[in-house]
Structure formats: structure tokens, C-alpha cells
Design brief:
36% of the residues lie in helices and 27% in strands. It is of the alpha+beta class. The strands form three sheets. Strands 2-1-4-6-5-3 form a six-stranded mixed beta sheet. The radius of gyration is 24 Å and the shape is elongated. The termini are far apart. 36% of the residues are buried.
């Protein structure tokens, strides 16, 4: 009976015909550079990643790619996976990859690649590594968040089903940024993601403790976002967070993030809105 090669992309599988595992990574990058299935090539090759090699090995044990990522220390964004079983012939394997995974291989979003081979199976994972801002970037990032928030406030917007008119811009408050930093540090140090602090405090408590005498106050939080653009867009896409951004009740804003490489989220963001008395 003729042996079959099985190519799978998480939920879908295709069957192809049969037959030694060589350097698949170079072959994948050759496909990436030249393009396939009418898709243009990408000049930048996928870098080999030991972290993704481990993810590929974990994925070979079964289950979904997300579960394999959770079982390793690799942190990335926009990951995807490719799988070929039933052959050790490099030409056959690369042919399957070119036909079944062309869009994944030529996607410029991905920058790293990991592989694992066992018997006649090859598991490949591609991803973009998680690269959060550093503490040195905090002033620049704060200004970017403020600019993006004020750009959003400058136009009418719907937050879920609620419509908001354009509202005046916010100013950046050092005191509110301090309150934001306190909460981001608390979440990072104690590995949680909630508005309530580890000591039971609310945003109003934290702003009052640092001496901010507020008439109105609110808070947005986020985890995992690598850039100002990603975190602000995430808040705008969430009706409750969007309402805080578009509310005319607030005149000032504070923003802070804390990077914690040992945690799964990797980065914790807090945005605090206020109107002083």
C-alpha cells in the first residue's frame, strides 16, 4: 500500500504522496525569497530560533500551537505552524510546504522559525518575537500614547453602541503617570491583571494616595501589547476602555508600563484619566 505524506495546518489537512530529512530551513527560506503560488517573495529570511525549536518539539506531542507556546518560555506574536508527515525526502517536504503553506512562508510579519523532526514528521513554527519597549523608552512611549489618544478624541467615535462627539485633548500628568506606574508594578510583581490592586485598592485610592485631588478618575489596563499603537488600538476596540478615552469628564492622563520577562504577558500597561478639583 502506498505510503502517504500528510500536511496539516492546525484545523485542515491535505494528503500527498510519499518518501530523508536534510536542511529544511534553507529550503523554506529559498521558497520565501522566490515566492510561490503567485505570491511575491520576501527578501528578509526567517532566522532560526532555539525558542521556536522548542515550541515545534512541544507541538509535535499533540494539541494546538497555542498550547505548545504556553508550555515553553518563548514569547512571540502572530505565530503560525506548518506540519508535514510521511516523508524524509527534502524535495517532497519542500514541495508540500510550497503548495500548502505558501501564504505562511511568504508572510513578512514572521521573522523567526523553529523546526523539529521525528521519524518521517517535520513540525515548523514561525513567529515574530515579542519585543517590548524598554524603561529608557518610557518618555517617548508616553508621548506616543498621548498623541494617539488625542487623535482619537479629536473625531466623533462610537464606543460599542454609544456615540461620542469630538472632545478636547488631554494633557499628560506626571502624578497620574505615577499612579499608573504603581499599578503596573503591582500587577507585574504579583502576576495578576485586575483593576483592583493586590492591597484591595481602586484607582481612586491610588491617585489619592499620591496627592492627586480628583473630581473624576478612571483607569484602563492592558497586557502583552508591544507598542503604543497596539495598546491604544486595543483600548479603542473595547467599548468600556473606549468610553474612558472619549469621555469629556477627564482633562488629564497618565500612562505607564512595566516589563516582566518572567511572566506570560511580558508587559503590563496602566492608563489613568483624571480631572483635578
Amino acid at each position: 500500500m502506498k505510503k502517504l505524506v500528510r500536511a496539516c495546518l492546525i484545523l485542515s489537512c491535505a494528503l500527498v504522496a510519499a518518501p530523508v530529512f536534510a536542511d529544511i530551513a534553507d529550503g523554506v527560506n529559498d521558497i520565501r525569497r522566490s515566492g510561490c503560488k503567485n505570491l511575491p517573495g520576501v527578501k528578509k529570511a526567517l532566522r532560526s530560533s532555539r525558542g521556536l525549536d522548542e515550541v515545534a518539539r512541544e507541538w509535535s506531542k499533540g494539541g494546538r500551537l497555542r498550547e505548545a507556546l504556553d508550555r515553553t518560555d518563548y514569547r512571540g506574536t502572530n505565530s503560525a505552524s506548518m506540519r508535514v508527515e510521511g516523508s524524509t525526502d527534502q524535495k517532497t517536504i519542500l514541495g508540500v510546504l510550497s503548495r500548502e503553506y505558501c501564504d505562511t512562508i511568504t508572510n513578512p510579519v514572521f521573522t523567526e522559525m523553529g523546526l523539529y523532526q521525528r521519524g518521517d514528521g517535520v513540525w515548523i513554527v514561525v513567529s515574530a518575537p515579542f519585543v517590548p519597549p524598554t524603561a529608557r523608552d518610557s518618555r517617548k512611549v508616553s508621548e506616543q500614547v498621548l498623541s494617539l489618544v488625542n487623535a482619537a478624541r479629536s473625531k466623533p467615535r462610537k464606543c460599542g453602541r454609544e456615540s461620542f462627539p469630538a472632545v478636547p485633548p488631554l494633557t499628560l500628568s506626571a502624578m497620574l503617570s505615577r499612579a499608573a506606574l504603581i499599578h503596573s508594578q503591582d500587577m507585574a510583581n504579583n502576576d495578576f491583571f485586575e483593576h483592583e490592586g493586590s492591597d484591595g485598592s481602586k484607582v481612586g485610592d491610588r491617585t489619592a494616595r499620591i496627592g492627586y485631588n480628583w473630581r473624576a478618575v478612571a483607569e484602563n489596563i492592558a497586557i502583552g501589547a508591544e507598542t503604543a499603537e497596539i495598546v491604544v488600538q486595543g483600548w479603542l476596540d473595547s467599548p468600556g476602555h473606549c468610553v474612558n478615552i472619549m469621555s469629556a469628564d477627564y482633562t488629564e492622563m497618565g500612562i505607564a508600563y512595566v516589563v516582566e520577562p518572567k511572566s506570560k504577558p511580558g508587559i503590563y500597561w496602566t492608563q489613568v484619566f483624571g480631572r483635578p478639583r
